[in-house]
Amino acid sequence: MTASTRDIVLSVEGLKTWFHSRDGVAKSVDGVTFDLARGETLAIVGESGSGKSVTSLSIMGLLPKPAGRIEGGRILFRDRQDAQHDLAQASPATLRRIRGAEIAMIFQEPMTSLNPLYTVGDQIAEAVLQHEGGSYAAAINRAREMLERVEIPAADRRINEYPHQMSGGMRQRVMIALALACNPAVLIADEPTTALDVTVQAQILDLLRRLQAEMNMSILFITHNLGVVAEIAHRVAVMYAGRVVEDADVYDLFEKPTHPYTRGLLSCIPTASLRASGERLRAIPGNVPSVLSLPPGCTFAPRCPLAASDCLAAVPELVPVQTEHRARCIKVNPI
Ligand SMILES: Nc1ncnc2c1ncn2[C@@H]1O[C@H](COP(=O)(O)OP(=O)(O)OP(=O)(O)O)[C@@H](O)[C@H]1O
Ligand SMILES: [Mg+2]
Known about the structure:
- This protein has 335 residues and is of the alpha/beta class.
- The protein folds into two domains: 8-102 and 188-297, 3-Layer(aba) Sandwich (Rossmann fold), CATH 3.40.50; 110-183, no CATH class.
- Helix content is 31%, strand content 24%.
- It has helices spanning 52-60, 92-98, 120-132, 136-149, 155-158, 168-180, 198-215, 226-232, 250-255, 260-267, 272-277; strands spanning 8-21, 24-37, 41-45, 68-78, 84-86, 103-106, 186-190, 218-223, 235-240, 243-249, 319-322, 325-327.
- The strands form two sheets. An eight-stranded mixed sheet has the order 6-7-8-3-9-10-12-11, with helices on both faces.
- The longest helix is centred in the middle third of the chain and has 18 residues, at 198-215.
- The protein is globular.
- The model has no long low-confidence stretch (mean pLDDT 91).
- Bound molecules: adenosine-5'-triphosphate and magnesium ion.
- The site of adenosine-5'-triphosphate has 16 residues, from strand 2 and helix 1.
- The site of magnesium ion has 3 residues, from helix 1.
């Protein structure tokens, strides 16, 4: 898709989310920018602590208060009526209306969203009643339909079960059914398959892909696993220390990675020949800097093989290197 034909549903512009504590200010998200188009999957990748989850909690209005605050930027969301909201400034009532109904979220651990005290049918029905009203009978019917849609066998019986009676993979399916019950435009999936074994992970990715096509839904897929990115994403945003350092179409990113950090990440993917040779997996030397004291200029410079003194002068801009492909590095040639 080209810029002019991408139908943008969620646009995050220069988002800054900081945490205030006695130790100082943690600039966990410090100028994150990306667009999500309708029907598209955008993967956000980056090492642990790069600000992926804080970005998604900022969009959902679920930051731990009062420590976490949005200090700047905009989170523009177009709702079903085509009205635009800046979720960074929205009232708690607007956020409650949008959250769960128009933007839904699934987590790595299903038990963070599922209540152990209610049957899975009642939980899905409750979400439908809360956002759409109507009768309990209609809501429980929707719950059954949703369980069938996420391919839970014997949905008629399973609807009366409690989360603990189910396997991890089945609970993940219930969480997806719950998230999608109100037909959201955007699904935020934060490491949804990390805790699952490889076979179940592949099944859940297949399911998400199929549901996305059926519902023309947009997915913000958060992961540190580039193998999963290649499976599911249309576009990729690479995060480092609270900023997007590169974003591109998934093929471009794997074929022509531009930012030295992205190149480093890609060279760390284990390959079959590497495994066979018993060679150790490469890792990018050094660590992600502390968000309490970020280095000046480019925050990747201390680990970057190309770093020079001018990299420390100022934070590089995210500049276009090709159509729909941008990188935050002064060593790349902008178009
Ligand atoms: N409640 C909080 N209070 C203070 N700092 C926080 C809080 N939540 C997150 N942070 C800090 O913000 C930074 C980004 O955290 P975040 O959880 O977004 O990372 P992540 O990219 O999701 O990592 P992971 O891959 O491990 O899930 C981290 O340095 C973290 O310590
Ligand atoms: Mg996280």
